[in-house]
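Run folding on both entries below.
>entry_1
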Amino acid sequence: MTSDLELLAATNSVGKNHNKDLMSGASSSLRAAFSHCVQQVRNYDYHHYLCLLELPPELRKTAFALRAFNVETSKAMDIASDPRIGLMRLVWWKEAIDKIYVRKQIEHPVAQALASVLSENKISKGWLKRSVEARINDANREISDIPEKIEDLEKYAEDTVSTLLYTTLQAGGIKSTAADHAASHIGKASGLLLLLKSLPYHASRNRHFSYIPAEVAANHGLLFKEGGRSEIHLDSREGLCDAVFEMASVANVHLLKARELSGAVPIEARPVLLESVPAQVLLDSLNRVQFDVFDPRLARGVLGVSPLWYHVKLKWYSWRGKY
């Protein structure tokens, strides 16, 4: 029986081979830029790193550059010692996109890789700007500024996650309304579920659950008015689990809708939509812990399951041409 460690070693070897494929024919500086992108995705977004390895070789380079761009913007606020510095970093990336599209050189490995793939593919600038602007708007929110409805978080998920799928489909030259609609649903599901998984982290930083909508919090006794403003309290673990269940149920509906479209989605689009697999894995993991986001089992392995099981599930969907 192959151990998880042996599987991961094999996966790392495959990743290195794909890394070499990405660099073929490129200058040494560009090879270093793409290598940096691959490592960033592998280090900070491992479950999606494995998804990208299932893409056709001609699409991987673009997908890794786009996903590394997402890593840079998604962690900008988390790694900054001061929120103002994180916000400045996001604004820098917004301006960097404008510079890339007018072919200005930027001394940053992810920006260099992004510039390279954008010069080779027709990718809408609007999608990239939309994702950064959504993160800037989120970073500008006050701690007490709680989203009113779950639709607000669905929009944030589409702006930051679905846009990645849209741009990857564009890079692959895939024009399909069904694929776009499926990508929208998968992005919303994935974004919502990842926000749920991150709730303990955000709570440890500011003691507020700013990613639980006020409407949902009120439904489960978590919303309190203090000093003229609303706050979410965690006194009731049962109430929190119920709120997480309500939000996860919305994500589940999006996954079901995405799969209902599968018959109309072109075969060449399905590898891009494999990102529904990690979303489903996380949803199943939440279900196993009764939607308790503080359960330590969620932090184990890959999204709460063993690396071997995750890898096998992903390969199974890929081999069957499903998502």
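>entry_2
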Amino acid sequence: MTPPWGMNRCSTDNRRFEEQGVSFPAYKSVPISALKQNGLLQSLSAAANGCREVDITEEVRRAREEWEAVENVHVGGILEKPPGPIPLISFNEALQHFQTADLSDCRKKIQPTVPRRGLAAVAHFLFGPPRLHQQLQSERDLALAIAQCGLDNNEKVHMRILQTIYKKLTGSRFDCARYGSHWEDLGFQGTDPGTDLRGTGLLGLMQTLYFVMDSRILPLAREIFKLSHHETQARSSFSNFPFCVMSINITRIVIQVLREERLSRECNRRQQVIAVLNDLYVAIFLRLFNIWKTQQKTISDSGFVLKELEAFAKRNPKQLLRHLEMYLNGSAVLEDGFQAPAVSSEVFGLNLSSVSNSKEASFTGVCDLPTETEQES
């Protein structure tokens, strides 16, 4: 009898073995992708049990070719495998992408300034910071629109940003998988960095990209990344902190300072917005680094530290930017060779021991801190 479609002499032989009670060892929970990668599927389909290639029908051969063309599939969609290593991307190249991309939907969601009503609006008008120059408002709106963009697997620039951050922080020359525990090693909360971007969108990744792609501050970024994995410096094993979660929270602070118009004076002076935002981001991270290292903070202090950073950034962003300039000028060198500004401990530090000892606190997740959305009288 002629075997049905897709069966050849191998299939009929196997059925005969089953009728005779011959059993084969069972293999459990082996992913098909693993079989494909190891060449096991090809071996099984080519010459098992003495089967020859000529025994394979044309339909089976076409099915095999279709299988070879299948790409890696994830619940988020089909991810195309690039033909070679994903190239690094500079901050300026990524920014040019967003300048030319269609962000109309994202722009509809932005709120450029914090709404104020009643006496708060009057006081802000009379005594508050100056308004941002009109010619700079489009650049401000672009930054806020980027903060409304989500991570898109089908957008090559988004994937290049992720790969660049990973390679520059870890020193790896190889691409990494879109999903996996290696993102947790970088300080994301899970295996998918995209889930951590609420509240900051792609601006959170863009500022991290700026941090690792500027040769002047890359040593600082790697030093902070190293500190975030330090498990023995403080009084417990929880002295490390998730680097990328902290970075995203700092971007959230930068967005809030911008929306409260605390950066308008500096932006007007420099005739730039995004460059000022990036400098403030690095300046806040530098302050965090000094607080964490000199005062031996632990993960339980993170919420208090972030609140202090936000208050300080809103109160005196100009001072933070000046401290960053001092750092870049290399005013002093620590014993380990790491450059740091020669300023007093009051500049970078704060004493939170009395606060943190009085109340238990867990690590503050992405954008868990309350934000001021509206000011009233």
